[in-house]
Amino acid sequence: MGDSKGDLLNSQLLENLGAGDHLSVWKGYGPYGIVGAVIIGLLIPILLSALFLGKKKEKQRGVPVQVGGEAGYAVRNARFSELVEAPWEGATTMAALFEQSCKKNSRNPFLGTRKLISREFVTGSDGRKFEKLHLGDYEWKTYGEIFDRACNFASGLIELGHDLDSRAAIFSDTRAEWFIALQGCFRQSITVVTIYASLGEDALIHSLNETQVSTLICESKQLKKLAAISSSLKSIQNVIYFEDDGIENDTISGSMNEWTITSFSEVEKLGKISPVHPSLPSKNGIAVVMYTSGSTGLPKGVMITHGNIVATAAGVMKVIPKIGRNDVYLAYLPLAHVFELAAESVMLAAGCAMGYSSALTLTDTSNKIKKGTKGDASVLKPTLMTAVPAILDRIRDGVVKKVEEKGGLVKNLFDIGCKRRLAAVEGSWLGAWGLEKILWDIIVFKRIRTLLGGHIRFVLCGGAPLSADSQRFINICMGAPIGQAYGLTETFAGATFSEWDDSTVGRVGPPLPCCYIKLVSWEEGGYLTTDKPMPRGEIVVGGFSVTAGYFKNQEKTTEVYKVDERGMRWFYSGDIGKFHPDGCLEIIDRKKDIVKLQHGEYISLGKVEAALTSSNYVDNIMIHADPFRNYCVALVVPLHQVLEKWAQQAGINYSDFSELCDKAESVSEVQQSLNKVAKAAKLEKFETPAKIKLLPEQWTPESGLVTAALKIKREQLKAKFKNELLKLYA
Question: What is the pLDDT of residues 449-466, one digit of tens each?
Answer without folding.
Answer: 888 899 999 999 987 778
